[in-house]
Each structure stands twice: as structure tokens, then as C-alpha cells.
Design goal:
Length: 177
């Protein structure tokens, strides 16, 4: 059995005209669309690692949820070890502002978009499910009600549960195929 490596990610979001928008960044290697993520650091709590990655990779700062929105896995081919599985715990980050300058500014592109559009651009199935769960939960609300940061944070628990169900369903679908 392969060892699974943990990473922490931030899912940056803002509300624009009462609707959630998420930020994606490009990877440095191949320029794929991803969310900011990185390695655990001994002196930082997982959600603080995620916030630090969002600052370094996208220049965004704000309020990060202390509980993960969800978890997803992806495989990556490493030169030294062949294919490795990564498990990413993703935390919602309510963005207050994007700085004019940040450590990886010249190395990555950032872009705000609707969660459904972001889901079409990323390649990790579990991340697709997290993004779609944000979009789906928004679509069930009354048109006139506005999303507030408090409302989005309240949705974090149900979204985590929805994400777990989606992962279980996807895994069962693959096993039966």
C-alpha cells in the first residue's frame, strides 16, 4: 500500500452581488488550474498552513475556517518515487483583500469565477465535487436572499457532508465499473 501524503489547501471565496465567487490559481509546473495548497508545517495549525499558502500563491488574506470544508485526493508522478497519492484538506477562506504584491506573484495566474466554472477547469474529481457542492447549495436558496459570509460559514458543515457523500458515490461508481 502506498503512503498517502497530506497537504492543506485554501478555497478562497468572496461574495459578489450575493453570489459566491472562488479563486483558482495556476500551478507553477504545467499551468493547471488549482487552489492554493502546500505542506504541513510543525509550528502551524492546518488551517493556518492553508491561509499561508493562499497568501504565498495568490496574495489573498482574510478569515479562514478552522474546520475543513472537505478532503480530496489526487495522484502525482514524482521523479524520485513514481506515482504518489496526496490527500488535501481544503479550508474555506473568506477573502478580505488581494495584495498588490506576494511571494509567487510572477509565477502564477489568479482568477475569480463562479464555483461551477471553476469545477470545469480543475482536474481533481474530489475538488470538482467540493466546488459543485458550493454552487449546488447556493442554487437551492431563494433568489432574493443574499449570501453572507456568516451564511457561507454555516453551510460549511453541510457542504462537508455533501462532499463526503459525493466522494463515496464516486468511489462506489468506480468500483462497479
Amino acid at each position: 500500500m502506498r503512503k498517502i501524503i497530506t497537504q492543506y489547501a485554501a478555497l478562497p471565496f468572496v461574495l459578489k452581488n450575493g453570489r459566491p465567487r472562488v479563486m483558482l490559481v495556476t500551478s507553477r509546473g504545467k499551468g493547471r488550474w488549482i487552489i492554493p495548497k502546500g505542506w504541513p508545517e510543525k509550528e502551524l495549525a492546518p488551517h493556518d498552513c492553508a491561509a499561508k499558502e493562499a497568501y504565498e500563491e495568490a496574495g489573498v488574506v482574510g478569515k479562514i475556517d478552522e474546520r475543513p470544508l472537505g478532503t480530496y485526493r489526487y495522484n502525482k508522478r514524482l521523479r524520485s518515487r513514481g506515482v504518489t497519492t496526496f490527500e488535501v484538506k481544503a479550508y474555506l477562506l473568506e477573502v478580505e483583500r488581494q495584495l498588490k504584491d506576494w511571494p509567487e506573484k510572477g509565477q502564477r495566474e489568479t482568477r475569480w469565477m463562479a464555483p461551477a466554472r471553476a469545477a470545469r477547469l480543475v482536474s481533481e474529481d474530489g475538488l470538482v465535487q467540493l466546488l459543485l457542492s458550493i454552487d449546488a447549495s447556493h442554487g437551492r436558496r431563494k433568489r432574493r436572499s443574499a449570501w453572507t459570509p456568516v451564511a457561507l460559514r454555516r453551510l460549511a458543515g453541510p457542504l462537508r457532508a455533501l462532499s463526503r457523500l459525493a466522494r463515496a458515490w464516486t468511489g462506489a461508481k468506480r468500483r462497479n465499473a
